[in-house]
Each structure stands twice: as structure tokens, then as C-alpha cells.
Request: fold
Amino acid sequence: MEHITESSTLKAPAERFAGDVHLNMIEAPTAPARLAAALVRFTPGARTNWHSHANGQTLYVTDGVGLVGTRDGSVVRVHAGRTVKCPAGEEHWHGATDTTFMAHIAMVVGDADGDGTTWLEPVTADQYAHALDTGD
Reply:
């Protein structure tokens, strides 16, 4: 057993996130393990770029209200205590609403080459505004 008493808070890279986003790694896998998990905190309006995961992603919201959007325009509004599963290969983004913070635990099972994440372009202001208006 290993008892980890703290992990450093890191600022998420600007080339993959819009706004202020901070993360604490919970699990960074070493072979043969492939689970990566992090606590990710988004300030109001902050969000990821579009991205996908080779083996999907599970998001468990721990605090606040957030949005998860997909390329077909579907948007889910998520609250603390809710879980969203993004299927393998689905291009999506997630982040906070424009008025609230949001924190989630992000979990991915990587592939043989790493965490299996493909990072894409930023979510546009229009896409984000649409998500704010339509998230259920």
C-alpha cells in the first residue's frame, strides 16, 4: 500500500484549455496500469479544448455546475454528484458555466502509447454560448 499525502496543484496548459484551470493528479499510471485520474478545477467560463479519448473518459463532478458538449451540439449540464461517460473516440469538451466554478475527477484508461487523449482546437465563443443556452 502507498499512502499519498499530497499532490502539487498544476496550472493546466493554455494550449489545451481556455480560462483558468488547475489540476491535481490522483493517479499517473506506470506499466502495466493504464488508469489516469485527476481532480480538475475550472473557474467560471473555463473549459477544455475539443478532444477525444481512445478508450473513453468518465467525469465525476465534485463541486459546482459544468457543461459537457459533443460535436453534434448535444450539451449536458452537470451538477455535483453526477457522472458523465464519454464513449471511446467521441469528440467532446467540458468546463464550468459562465457564473460558477466546477470541479470534477477525470478518469481515463490509456492505451499502449499513453493516456490515449487526442487534443483538438479550442471551443469557440459561439459554441460555448450555445452550450450555455441549451445545456439540460
